Amino acid sequence: MSDYRGQFEKIREQVEAWREELGVPGASFGLTVSGQSYTAGAGVTSVENPLPVTDETLFQIGSITKTVTATAMMRLVERGKLDLHAPVRDYLPGFRVLDDDVSRRVTAWHLLTHLAGWTGDVFSDTGIGDDAAEKYVAGMASFAQLAPLGLHFSYNNAGFCVAGRIIEALTGATYEAAIQELVFEPLGMARSFFFPHQVMLHRFAVGHEEGGRVLSPWAIPRGMNAAGGISCHIHDLLRYGAYHLGDGPPLLRRENLAEMQKCQAPSLPHMAGCGLAWMISGSDGETRLWHTGGTNGQESVLTIVPQQQLAFGMMTNGDKGADLHERFNKAVLSEFCGIELPEPRAIASSPEALTQFVGVYRGIMREIELRMENDALVALIRATGAWPADDATSEQSAAAARCGDDQLLILDGIHKDSRADFIRDDRGEIRYLRFGSRLHLRG
Q1: Helices (H) then strands (E): counts for the chain
Q2: Using CA of residue 291, residue 294, residue 295, residue 299, what is the dihedral sign?
Q3: What is the SS3 assignment for 58?
Q4: What single-letter DSSP state applies at residue 50?
Q5: What is the pLDDT of residue 305?
Q6: How far is CA 234 from each of CA 137, 201, 226, 370, 381, rounded to the nearest angstrom?
Q7: Of 165, 169, 167, which is closest to residue 179 (Cα–Cα)?
Q8: Residue 364: what are its φ and ψ, rounded to 5°?
Q9: pLDDT given for residue 412 in this prediction
Q10: Considering only CA atoms, which of 199, 277, 205 is closest in space to residue 55?
C-alpha cells in the first residue's frame, strides 16, 4: 500500500504559508486517497478567543449540506417512498410559489438540479421550533419566477428547503432527525451537527470578515438547514466524501449513487453540469464532483475524483477562505492527479463587441451594472443586503472582459477570476447574466 504522507506534508506546508499570506484566521483540511486519510489544522478558531484549529475543530460546511439532503432523498427513493419526477404536491399538497403552473408541475428533480427557476436566495428566519422548515416553505407562496421551470440552471437555496420539507413529510421526523437516521449514523459521522447547542460542546470555529472582525449571527436560520446547516470536522467530511467514492456502507445501490453523479442539468461555462446536488467538472478525461459552502464568514469545499479514489476538502473561517480553497484544490489536483487547471483568459474585443453587454442585471443578492469606460468593460457589483453579512450600501468596481462567446471574466477586485455567462432569448437578445451561478435579469 502506497504511503502519501510526504505528498500531503508538502501541501500542508504550502497551505500554512498561503493561509498567513491571505490572512485567513484558521483552516482545517485533508484528503483520503485509496482508503488512506491525511488531515491537518492551522491557525485559530477566533481572533477574539483564539484556540488552535486542529483536525477535530468543527466548522460550518454550508451548502455542501445540499449533497447530504440529496443523498437522504435517494435513500427514500430506494425505500419506495419518493419518485423524483412526481410533482412536489404529491408529498406537500399545499405547496405553492407565485406561479400557479410551476406550483403544480415542479418535481423533486427540479429542486435537486437547481432548475426550479424561482427566486432562490431569501434567508427568512422562521424560528428555532420543529416547524421552522414548514414555515419557510409556506412563505414561498410569494416567490416569483426568474426563468421558466426546467430551462436554466440557477443556484437555488429555497429549492433545497422544499426538499428538506419533503423529507420531513415522508419520514414523519424533523429534517435534522431524518438526516441523523438516513446519513449520519450509517456513515459513522458522529461529530456532525445542526444545532449550536450541540456544536458548542466541542471546539468550533467562528466566521470573520476582512480585517479580522468576528461575524454574527453564527448560524443560518433553522428553516434553511436542508440548504446549508451542517457543522462537522474534517474527518466526518472526508468520511462522507469517501462514501461517494463508493467506499463505505451500502446506503444506496450503485446505480443510484451513479445517478447522483451523472450530469442532469445543462453545462455551464465553468463546469460540465450539475448532477443531483453535485457540481460536475472535468478535464484530461477525469470527472470531478464538488460542492462549495459559504455561511457567515466561513467557507468550505469538498471535491471527489472517482477515477483516482480521491476525496479532499477544506474548511476555513475567513472571507479569503475561497482564495485559499482554490490554491489548495489546484495543489492537490496537481500532486495527486497530474491535473493542471487552466487559468481563465481574457479575449481581446473591440468596443463594439463589448457594448452589447452594457446594462443593469438584477438578482436577489446582487445588482450588476456593466458599462463602458475608455473602450473597456467595467462591472459595478452592488450587494442588496439579502445575505445577512452583506452591506447593502457596498459597491465593488472591477474591470471585466470577454473570455468566450457570451462569457464574462472579472479581472480584478474581490471577484477576480470569477466567470459569468450571458443567456439569450429566442430572438437572440440578452435576457440574463448568470453570475455566481445565479440568474440576474437584465433591466
Answers
A1: 14, 17
A2: positive
A3: strand
A4: -
A5: 96
A6: 31, 17, 20, 40, 33
A7: 167
A8: -75, -40
A9: 92
A10: 205
Question: How many C-beta neighbours within 10 Å does residue 384 have?
Answer: 15
Residue in 340, 271, 260 with CA at minimum distance from that of residue 306 = 260
Q: What pairs with residue 438 in β-bridges?
A: 435
Query: Can you give the pLDDT at residue 388?
Result: 59
Per run of 10 residues, the mean pLDDT along the chain (length 443 residues) is: 88 97 97 96 97 98 98 98 98 98 98 96 96 98 96 96 98 98 98 98 95 91 98 98 90 94 81 92 82 96 96 95 95 93 90 96 94 96 74 80 94 90 96 95 95
DSSP conformation class of 358: -
Residue 401, C-alpha cell as written in the block: 472582459
Give residue for cell 470555529.
205
Give the three-state DSSP class for 78.
helix
Maximum CA pair distance of the chain? 61
Say which amino acid occupies 116. A
Instruction: Mention every residue, 6+ apart, whose C-beta is less than 8 A from residue 12.
Output: 40, 42
In degrees and rounded to multiples of 5, residue 399 shows phi and psi of -70, 145
* Domains of the chain as residue ranges with CATH: 1-342 (3.40.710.10), 351-442 (2.40.128.50)
Torsion angle of alpha carbons 129, 131, 133, 135, nearest 10°?
-110
What burial letters (b/e) apply to 69-93, b meaning 16+ CB within 10 Å? Answer: bbbbbbbbbeeeebebeebbeebbe
User: DSSP class of residue 334?
Assistant: I
- Other beta carbons within 10 angstroms of residue 414's beta carbon come to 15
Q: Which positions ≥6 away from 313 have C-beta within 8 Å?
A: 29, 30, 31, 234, 237, 238, 241, 300, 301, 302, 303
- The residue among 69, 65, 63 whose CA lies nearest residue 167 is 69
Q: What is the pLDDT of residue 341?
A: 84
